[in-house]
From TrEMBL:
Keywords: Membrane, Transmembrane, Transmembrane helix. This is HlyD family secretion protein. One of its GO terms (molecular function) is efflux transmembrane transporter activity. The chain crosses the membrane at residues 6-25.
């Protein structure tokens, strides 16, 4: 081995060792920065609370719009089938809007039957139209107005949770989440009357997140409700 070959060999080893040292240094710097810059997921919420949207509970005058499918019966009549809960709050004279494209037929409930339709498990009602029906449609969509005489606590169905068919909601109390079992009354599928479990002035959590549990800290991101 001559001197030139030996020098080249030594130079290669030195350069290689230097490159490896530089790479390891860069890795240590990156790891250190990441460890410092990224807080733990759990720790972040422990410090600041789980961000949630909320719904403010108040008693209010409410009129539900129950969606129905109706069929024409005669020149000025419609028939529909309703569930038992809707039957309980349906009275003769309740206003109904029946939609026929751009046209609306207005009328009132003219008959309510407690006789169960065995084929569907629903109850028949009859609607009298103010105007003669001028359509060959076999069925129509309609809105049945169900007003409540006194102010009620009404909440959106979307904020109600359920375990074993037992409904509950999350309240905010002293900056913490609290689970409250609720008893619901009439619902049109979008909102429901609350019979017990919450009162006017309560702040309910609207956000659906698995991070909620009793006494977990929360912070309000946005509030809705009248």
């Amino acid at each position: 081995m001559n001197v030139r070959t030996l020098v080249h060999g030594v130079s290669y080893v030195v350069v290689t060792i230097g490159a490896l040292a530089a790479i390891n240094y860069q890795k240590d710097v990156i790891v250190a920065k990441r460890s410092k810059a990224i807080p733990s997921f759990t720790g972040q919420y422990q410090d600041h609370g789980v961000p949630v949207e909320t719904f403010n509970v108040e008693k209010q005058n409410v009129t539900f719009q129950k969606k129905l499918t109706v069929t024409p019966s005669g020149k000025r009549g419609f028939e529909a089938l309703v569930d038992r809960e809707t039957l309980k709050v349906t009275e003769i004279g309740r206003k109904v809007k029946v939609y026929n494209g751009d046209r609306i037929y207005r009328g009132q409930v003219s008959r309510v039957s407690n006789t169960l339709d065995l084929a569907t498990g629903l109850y028949p009602i009859r609607i009298k139209s103010n105007d003669e029906i001028q359509s060959d449609w076999a069925w129509f969509e309609a809105d049945l107005e169900i007003p409540f005489e006194k102010k009620e606590i009404v909440i959106p169905i979307e904020i109600v949770w359920s375990v074993d068919k037992k409904p509950y909601v999350w309240r905010i109390e002293n900056g913490q989440a609290k689970r409250s079992d609720v008893e619901l009354g009439y619902s049109d599928g979008y909102q429901a009357v609350v019979k017990s479990g919450v009162i006017a002035g309560d702040i309910l959590i609207k956000s659906k997140t698995e991070l909620l549990s009793d006494d977990v800290r929360v912070r309000i991101a946005q509030a809705t409700g009248e």
